[in-house]
TrEMBL record, chain A:
Occurrences of domain U3 small nucleolar RNA-associated protein 15 C-terminal (ranges): 345-491
Top-level taxonomy: Eukaryota, Metazoa, Chordata, Craniata, Vertebrata
UniProt KW Repeat keyword: yes
Keywords for the protein's UniProt record, in alphabetical order: Nucleus, Repeat, rRNA processing, WD repeat
Name of the protein in its database record: U3 small nucleolar RNA-associated protein 15 homolog
Gene Ontology process terms (BP): positive regulation of transcription by RNA polymerase I; rRNA processing
Origin species: Amphiprion ocellaris (Clown anemonefish)
WD repeats: 118-159, 244-285
Length: 527, 840
């Protein structure tokens, strides 16, 4: 006596993104903390020393936030105009910032008043940075020049006038005190050596450059400008390595995750993309509410801070290990299983005789009814609300099974208004789904056949039938358009492909589980 | 060595075992059933076939326990004989020659020496009318007895054995045919007839299909074509009979059976549900559902503990008290057609073909036994006539047997074709195939051919399927892209077409560097690594029917047969036609282990076989008229042990054996004379003159017996001769050298051992009796008693045995009067001293 074979519920390939190690890692952040600033946030910089405060440059102020506070721990307000590029020195003691009024100010993190003011630029200064020896400052300005300043004397050391447009980004080497790189709106990025008066290397990005990033080893340089993110190999004389085009608006900011394995880019298209630095494929994606101007990652990826054009600062903190474990722990503890496994760990002794219990077969509700040949009840069980909404494949599989048994008509007939409307609403929801169409079209035809005589008696049913008709008409139009597009593509491919000796056409890959366009088209037509 | 390599065509796979109702013996240990030309004896506990009762020369049509001796069984056959067998030992006791075909056999304990058989009317062998006759079996000592005195009981009966049944205590016999039920009373010598009105409402299906009589009560149960069961009572009056109707079955009731005490009625039909009705409380029913296939016969053991049901898929199920299936005896399932080719599983070397609906059966060719059924469709089978079911239409194994690909399809009247391609991986732990990937709708139309790439070294396995939708697809095992717990699965790698033609067959070359796909008249050759079309070959007119690459030294040849009776051989090195010949070949296949190719060619309703090498012009072997009808399925099965035949025309059978299916679904094969001789020799060795099975026990005891018989003469004359010493030493040797686990119990051996040491002369014959008794005891497997009591009881029982032997009409070794007298005398002798000896 064989046991009852339950209805086979097909497993369809999951749509949407796949769960990878990366998604798990980047999703492991708490809900963001949002802080309203006074204007667009142009720069965010983390202090290199603990407790890793970060400076947020927005409009005429620079706020310094602690790692967990939502109120600024410190505010610098002594700017006459919009401040730019507030950056910490490598010891976290000093902060430098440019300003629209062309004056560069140096602050002590503890104080309020500027320690030094560097005057010399003629236009707004958008780039400021400390060199790695901590005694000099690099600035870049809209007057096309970049300058080096000495901090103790507050004097200008050198002027470089090689760029031919605004300088909007620059970075100093962390390993060599004399090296720095600037990027400009003239599409070039130049590597300067303070020991010579000229740039030592120049690369063409092809777009106005918005942001620059050096790898910790400083062999690779990343530049962002326009829609492109480009990686340059400095050791090979500035050879372009990769060009990434994953954003559809200007990329404004770049960041590197703390272990250097992932590169992040933020753009005006409101996305932050995470790339793997080994193959430069996008492994994760964050969405934000507004265009992003600035982005920074705390050391060890403890938090992601994003500044947007709508002057909102969004801070995401990483979940602590306890928190993330709690969630998975809850799932594991769900059933009070322990009660039932009493004696499960018992190790049988040598003379013990093991009495094996027959394994009980557990059947789903609809299978129990199918086993008893109660076809209508089986369909009812499968159409229960939570099943119908969450796993539409279950009712479809049951309908298919009933059709195979030749009893689908019996199961569909003899319904009252409420049951029929439930059936129709399920059909309307899933009829045009490519996976379910072949099965549901048969059921829909049967329903129309059975209940044709009672049309016009119930306004509810009539409305639903009209909706179904509307849906089918739209689907037919849609499929027609798709076929047209397919035809256009075919002609394009045919004209673009070189003429081959061997006519082997239609080399396509399909996963086999999805049915062809044409068969779906047929189904809809019959429906 | 072989003198003449004579090659014969022989049947394989056994005959139907569900042809007639099986019989369970009184002790419920054996089950007997008619199977082709022999009666098979199965063990009810181990499901093994113990022996075949061979002797009939035509289809056996009935098996029946002899009412007066429960160790003997009658069997009847179309060949016009009724044979009496001792089924425990498989000995033919008597043959009664009736003279005309016998279709069924009945007997009752009240009618001693008479059997009732169904024969054609008036000896006209072709007539459709049958009669029930009584045959008096003559008492005679001969093996072959003519018994042609037939006395008619009922005329115009059905030839179906289920339509006749003996009533309570054999007082009457009931027979049903069409719409009429006849009851014949033996005492009154009078028959009553009861007719049902034809039911015109629903196709008039209330004809009788089977009859059963209550064993203790005057009640006849009849089954009908519309699924009703009627219980007839008071039928010894012409007019005042009554009947009540039970209805559960929705199709014809195929078998009815009362339990021996009459408390329950069992019924079965195409629903494959065994229904148990309480007698007199018919509303109470028990069901045993999902028995696998339509029930054709039901039988109950005489003690009522075991039921057995025969099923239409050549299966007998043994059920313990309507609750538990305890054993399943399964023969080779033969459906209407084998849609999958015959395939050999490379791992188990089993033949694989369609079995039960939705299953593949694995049939061991070496052991000639069904191994198991693999459920392919994995859906609840609905036993209903006229329902479209999923059928397995294609199957293929890869070279190592780790992957199995199956195609199942279901054709509906209105909707489109449903096709599923399933790939199964062999699981080492469970030793069976586990479903890996299901691809629903792999093609838009029917799949015409499928083959695996026979690569032995590469880790990538590839499957190619061709379909009527004009595409062929290559499927490959892909490792998952993400680090998840799911294993590798199959996905489509390549889709190929050729001018929109329909591909018919595909084939990989021996080293799997080439794939040949035939598109109607054109053969395209592809490289499976780069999917480049290398060349096209064509020999119009006629579409290609079969494609085959040569093997080993002939692997440069590609052979194809066309619909216009042409066999072509292309040389792939020159890409030109090497040779072609005009033959109507229905099937072409290559031996995977040699260069040989076999071609079945259909000519004038018969099929001829040619075996040839592509490189040689002359066929190696040809066999005219292998069978009637066309052969469409055949396979080369590799042999377990290579034959060393050097005869030229039997050499091709050395490495592998050719099996084929005829139009009538008979599995046939070719054997050489040498094989036949070997088989004969082994079976001769098994035929023992005695009734004891060839066991280590027998070897141990048989020698003793032999020597005793030699010594019989001196013993019967009671000469005071000494037992020769060698005999005792042999016994000791046997005792010490035989492995302990095959020895009989010590209590039994002890007496023998002691006897071998005895120097006694007076009680030598007593000891002999002792031995003899022990043998009988071992056969009946009764529990051994303590050795002390044994000595006394043994004597008593030996006398009983002697008496039973006397009373038996025709027991095999009859004792002479002198011997019986001697036994009686021995009984009176005092053996107490021996008991004392054993005590010490």
């Amino acid at each position: 006596m064989a046991s009852f074979k339950p209805t086979n519920i097909p497993v369809y390939p999951k749509l949407g993104e796949k769960v990878t190690q990366d998604t798990l890692y980047w999703k492991n952040y708490k809900a963001p903390v949002q802080i309203k600033e006074f204007g667009a946030i142009t720069n965010i910089d983390f202090s290199p020393v603990t407790p890793h405060n970060f400076a947020v440059t927005a409009f005429t102020r620079i706020h310094i936030y602690g790692p967990f506070s939502q109120e600024p721990v410190k505010t610098f307000t002594r700017f006459k105009d919009t401040a730019y590029c507030g950056r910490f020195r490598s010891d976290g003691q000093l902060l430098v910032a440019g300003c629209e009024d062309s004056v560069v100010r140096l602050f002590d993190v503890g104080g309020k008043v500027a320690l030094r003011m560097f005057r010399g630029h003629t236009k707004a200064v958008h780039v400021t940075d400390f060199t790695s020896d901590r005694y000099q400052i690099l600035t870049g300005s809209d007057d096309y020049t970049c300058r080096l300043w000495d901090i103790p004397n507050a004097t200008e050391l050198n002027v470089y006038q090689e760029h031919t447009d605004y300088i909007r980004c620059g970075i100093t080497s962390k390993l060599n005190r004399d090296l720095f790189i600037t990027g400009s709106y003239d599409h070039t990025l130049k590597v300067f050596d303070a020991r010579v008066d000229k740039s030592v290397m120049s690369m063409d990005h092809g777009q106005p450059i918005e942001s620059l990033l050096l790898y910790p080893s400083e062999g690779l340089l990343v530049s962002a400008g326009g829609r492109y993110v480009k990686v340059w190999d400095l050791l090979k004389g500035g050879q372009p390595l990769v060009s990434l085009r994953n954003h559809h608006k200007t990329v404004t900011c770049l960041a590197l995750s703390s272990n250097g394995q992932r590169l992040l880019s933020a753009s005006l298209d409101r996305h932050v993309k995470v790339y793997s630095t080994t193959n430069y494929k996008v492994v994760h994606n964050f969405d934000y509410a507004a265009s992003i101007l600035s982005l920074a990652l705390a050391p060890d990826d403890e938090s992601i801070v994003v500044g947007m054009t709508n002057s909102i600062l969004s801070i995401k903190h990483r979940k602590s290990p306890e928190e993330s474990r709690e969630i998975s722990g809850q799932q594991r503890r769900r059933p009070s299983y322990r009660v039932f496994v009493k004696g499960k760990n018992y190790v049988p002794k040598q003379d013990d005789y093991l009495v094996s219990k027959p394994v009980k077969q557990y059947l789903a509700k609809y299978d129990k009814q199918l086993k008893k040949f109660n076809v209508s009840k089986a369909l009812d069980c499968a159409l229960e609300k939570w099943i119908r909404l969450r796993n539409p494949e279950v009712p479809v599989a049951v309908i298919k099974e009933l059709d195979r048994r030749g009893t689908l008509k019996n199961a569909l007939a003899g319904r009252d208004e409420q049951q029929l409307s439930r059936l129709l609403s399920f059909l309307i929801g899933n009829l045009v789904d490519m996976r379910f169409a072949p099965v549901l079209v048969v059921a829909a035809e049967m329903i129309l056949d059975i209940y044709r005589s009672i049309l016009g008696q119930s306004p509810v049913i009539d409305r639903q039938l009209l909706r179904m008709q509307d849906l089918l008409e739209r689907e037919i139009d849609y499929q027609k358009e798709l076929v047209e597009v397919l035809g256009m593509l075919d002609t394009m491919f045919a004209s673009s492909l070189p003429k081959m000796e061997v006519p082997c056409s239609s080399v396509s890959r399909s996963n086999g589980l999805s049915q062809g366009e044409a068969s779906d088209w047929n189904c809809v037509q019959t429906g | 060595m072989v003198e003449h390599g004579d090659i014969r065509v022989v049947h394989r796979g056994g005959s139907k075992i569900d042809f007639r109702q099986p019989v369970i013996t009184n002790d419920s240990r054996f089950l007997l059933c008619a199977s082709g030309e022999c009666v098979k004896v199965f063990s009810t506990s181990t499901e093994e076939c113990i022996h075949d009762l061979q002797g009939h020369t035509d289809l056996v049509t009935g098996v029946l326990l002899r009412p007066s001796n429960h160790l003997q069984v009658y069997s009847c056959s179309i060949d016009g004989t009724v044979r009496l067998w001792d089924f425990t030992d498989g000995i033919l006791i008597k043959t009664y020659v009736i003279g005309c075909p016998v279709y069924s056999i009945y007997a009752s304990a009240n009618h001693e020496g008479v059997i009732f058989i169904v024969v054609p009317m008036l000896g006209d062998k072709r007539s459709e009318l049958f009669q029930l006759v009584a045959v008096h079996l003559p008492q005679s000592g001969d093996q072959l007895v003519e018994s042609r005195e037939l006395s008619a009981v009922l005329s115009n009966v059905s030839s179906n054995p289920a339509d006749i049944a003996f009533g309570r205590g054999g007082e009457y016999i009931a027979s049903a045919k069409g719409l009429q039920l006849k009851v014949f009373f033996f005492k009154k010598q009078k028959s009553y007839e009861f007719s049902l009105k034809e039911d015109n409402k629903k196709g008039g299906l209330n004809t009788f299909t089977c009859v059963a009589c209550h064993p203790k009560d005057d009640c006849i149960a009849t089954g009908h074509g519309d699924g009703k069961i009627r219980l007839w009572r008071n039928f010894n009056h012409k007019k005042e009979y009554t009947y009540s109707t039970l209805h559960w079955h929705h199709n014809a009731v195929s078998s009815l059976c009362f339990t021996p005490e009459g408390t329950n009625l069992l019924s079965g039909g195409v629903e494959s549900v065994l229904v148990q009705w309480r007698y007199n409380q018919e509303s109470q029913r028990d069901f045993l559902p999902r028995l696998g296939a339509a029930i054709t016969h039901i039988a109950v053991s005489p003690d009522g503990a075991l039921f057995c049901t025969s099923h239409s898929d050549n299966k007998i199920t043994i059920i313990q008290s309507c609750v538990k299936v305890s054993a399943v005896i399964q023969g080779l399932v033969k459906g209407e057609s084998v849609q999958t080719d015959l395939i050999v599983d490379p791992r188990s070397k089993a033949l694989v073909l369609n079995g039960k609906p939705g299953h593949l059966q694995f049939y061991s060719l070496q052991r000639d036994k069904l191994l198991y059924n693999l459920d392919i469709v994995q859906q609840e089978y609905i036993h209903e006539l006229g329902l479209e079911q999923f059928e397995v239409v294609k199957a293929a194994f890869d070279a190592s047997g780790t992957w199995l690909a199956t195609v199942e399809e279901r054709k509906q009247k209105s909707a489109e074709l449903e096709v599923n391609l399933k790939l199964w991986a062999f699981d080492e732990q469970t030793q069976s195939f586990v479903l890996n990937t299901t691809i629903s709708a792999p093609h838009e139309a029917r799949i015409t051919a499928m083959c695996f790439r026979q690569a032995t070294d590469s880790q990538t396995t590839m499957l190619v399927s061709t379909s009527k939708d004009g595409h062929f697809k290559a499927w490959q095992l892909a490792t998952p892209a993400h680090t998840e717990d799911e294993g590798p699965s199959w996905s489509c790698d390549f889709v190929g077409t050729y001018h929109g033609l329909v591909p018919e067959c595909c084939c990989f070359s021996a080293d799997s560097s080439l794939l040949a796909v035939s598109f109607q008249e054109v053969v395209t050759v592809w490289s499976p690594t780069s999917w480049e079309l290398l060349t096209t070959l064509s020999q119009p007119p006629g579409a290609i029917r079969d494609l085959c690459f040569g093997r080993l030294s002939c692997s440069k040849y590609l052979l194809g047969t066309t619909a216009k009776n042409l066999l072509c051989c292309w040389n792939l090195l020159t890409c030109s036609l090497e040779w072609s010949t005009s033959m109507d070949i229905s099937l072409l296949l290559a031996d995977p282990l040699s260069e040989n190719m076999a071609a079945f060619c259909c000519q004038a309703g018969c099929t001829d076989l040619f075996v040839f090498k592509p490189s040689e012009p002359r066929p190696l072997f040809s066999h005219k008229a292998v069978c009637s009808g066309t052969v469409t399925r055949a396979v080369f099965a590799p042999r377990e042990k290579m034959l060393d035949s050097c005869e030229e025309n039997s050499q091709w059978l050395n490495r592998s054996q050719l099996h084929f299916l005829t139009q009538y679904m008979d599995l046939m094969t070719f054997t050489t004379k040498a094989e036949d001789d070997r088989l004969m020799a082994s079976s001769k060795q098994l035929v023992i003159d005695d009734s004891v099975a060839m066991t280590p026990f027998y070897l141990l005891l048989g020698k003793h017996r032999h020597q005793q018989q030699e010594n019989q003469d001196p013993m019967s004359s009671l000469s005071a001769e000494r037992t020769p010493l060698p005999q005792s030493s042999v016994a000791i040797k046997e005792l010490l050298q035989t492995p302990a686990h095959v020895l009989p119990s010590t209590s039994f051996l002890c007496s023998m051992f002691v006897q071998s040491l005895l120097i006694s002369v007076t009680d030598l014959s007593g000891c002999r009796e002792n031995n003899k008794k022990a043998e009988e005891e071992m056969e009946s497997e009764k529990e051994e008693e303590d050795s002390e009591q044994e000595m006394e009881s043994s004597i008593v029982r030996s006398e009983q045995a002697a008496v039973s032997v006397q009373s038996a009409e025709c027991a095999a070794p009859a004792l002479t009067k002198a011997q019986v007298r001697e036994l009686r005398r021995l009984k009176k002798l005092d053996h107490s001293w021996l008991a004392g000896l054993l005590d010490s």
